[in-house]
Amino acid sequence: MDRPMLQAQALFQTGQQFKKTCVVDAAAGALNYGGDLDVLATPVIVYWIESYATECIRLAGRGCCGSVGHAVSVRHLAPAHPGSAVHLTITVEAMFGNSVRFSARLVTGEADTLIATGTHDRTLVEL
Fold this sequence. Notes:
Blueprint: E1 17-23, H1 42-60, E2 65-76, E3 85-96, E4 99-108, E5 113-126
Antiparallel strand pairs: 1-3, 2-5, 3-4, 4-5
Protein name: Fluoroacetyl-CoA-specific thioesterase-like domain-containing protein
InterPro entries: FlK (IPR025540), FlK-like_dom (IPR054485), HotDog_dom_sf (IPR029069)
Domain Fluoroacetyl-CoA-specific thioesterase-like: 34-126
C-alpha cells in the first residue's frame, strides 16, 4: 500500500527560525582543509548549515522522518578566528511538497559581523 508523501507544511511554517551557536575550534580551521589562514573553513560552514537543518527536521518530525540534502549554496563573506562564537540562524524560506528550503545567516562578535549567508534544500524521507 502506498503511504502518503511527507509534507513539509505539516512540520514547518514559512519564516520559522532556528538558532544555535557554534565555536570555531581547531578542527574547524581552514588549515585542515587546504586553506592558507587559521580561520573558519568554508566546508565547516556548509557542514554546520546542513547538520543543523537535518537536526531541525528530525526534531519537527518527532523521529518519524529524516531528510536528505539536495542543494546548498553558501557565500563566505568574512573570517571567523579560532575561539570565535558563531551564531547560526536558519529560516524556513519555502516549502514545496516534501522539500524545505532554509536560508542561513552566520554572524560573530558583539557587532554581529556577517560571516556567511546561504540556502540549503532538504527532502523529507520517512524513517
